[in-house]
């Protein structure tokens, strides 16, 4: 198989990134992973994925003028976080599907906190199995998560309201049967889990 030229690859990736939202809206979540794997030649997918994440993050890296309570120079974040946490939380990257440590994690109690500032973001009972390959939550701790339209308007980004760390994206109207008809699609690397939920005790 001929490997596609760089412009063709870019075009393919751009199309994929722009249709991801539509995929989620129109495709039952459990088939999403299979669909994308079967519609892209595997070699292209594997070779392009690290680049894909970089491409997505660089195309969406817009200045965020929101003032968050926790403010740090990027150099300080870089020193505090692992390289992968920094790439996702501060540079709006995306981890590989089905690889995050909380993808198949279903505790009965506890709280998921921000990987950057430890603010409580999601309760254990907000989590559900969407089959999409990333942790999914149908609701968040009140006011803990901020929504912001991506620069191209195709998706809605979710960020920690305390430090502005990138969590993932939110998708609505997918009919998973949860009370809010929403799915917070969160990178595992953006969050930590504490079995003790201090707030509700
Ligand atoms: Zn945070």
TrEMBL record:
User: What biological processes does GO assign it?
Assistant: protein repair; response to oxidative stress
Q: Write the Enzyme Commission number(s) for this entry.
A: 1.8.4.12
| Alphabetized InterPro entries for the sequence | Met_Sox_Rdtase_MsrB, Met_Sox_Rdtase_MsrB_dom, Mss4-like_sf
Cofactor binding note of this UniProt entry: Binds 1 zinc ion per subunit.
Q: Which cofactor names does the annotation list?
A: Zn(2+)
- Keywords assigned by UniProt, alphabetized: Metal-binding, Oxidoreductase, Zinc
| Domain MsrB, residue spans | 74-196
Q: What GO molecular function annotations does the UniProt record carry, in alphabetical order?
A: metal ion binding; peptide-methionine (R)-S-oxide reductase activity
Which catalysed reactions does the entry list for this protein? L-methionyl-[protein] + [thioredoxin]-disulfide + H2O = L-methionyl-(R)-S-oxide-[protein] + [thioredoxin]-dithiol
Q: Give the first-level EC class, as a single word.
A: oxidoreductase
* Similarity annotation: Belongs to the MsrB Met sulfoxide reductase family.
PANTHER family recorded for this chain? Answer: PEPTIDE METHIONINE SULFOXIDE REDUCTASE 2
What is the name listed in the Swiss-Prot or TrEMBL entry for this protein? Answer: Peptide-methionine (R)-S-oxide reductase
Q: Which organism is it from?
A: Ophiobolus disseminans
**Source taxonomy:** Eukaryota, Fungi, Dikarya, Ascomycota, Pezizomycotina
């Amino acid at each position: 198989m001929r490997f596609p030229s760089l412009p063709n690859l870019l075009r393919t990736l751009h199309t994929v990134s722009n249709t991801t939202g539509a995929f989620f809206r129109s495709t039952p979540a459990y088939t999403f992973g299979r669909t994308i794997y079967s519609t892209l030649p595997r070699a292209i997918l594997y070779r392009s994925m690290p680049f894909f994440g970089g491409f997505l993050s660089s195309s969406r890296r817009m200045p965020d003028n929101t003032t968050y309570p926790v403010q740090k120079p990027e150099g300080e974040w870089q020193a505090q976080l692992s390289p992968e946490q920094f790439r996702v939380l501060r540079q709006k990257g995306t981890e590989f599907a089905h690889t995050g440590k909380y993808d198949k994690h279903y505790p009965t109690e506890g709280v998921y906190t921000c990987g950057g500032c430890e603010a409580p973001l999601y309760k254990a009972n907000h989590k559900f199995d969407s089959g999409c390959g990333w942790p999914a939550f149908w609701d968040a701790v009140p006011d803990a998560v901020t929504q912001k339209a991506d620069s191209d308007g195709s998706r809605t980004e979710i960020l920690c309201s305390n430090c502005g760390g990138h969590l993932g994206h939110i998708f609505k109207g997918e009919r998973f049967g949860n009370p809010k008809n929403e799915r917070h699609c969160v990178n595992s690397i953006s969050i930590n889990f504490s079995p003790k939920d201090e707030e509700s005790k």
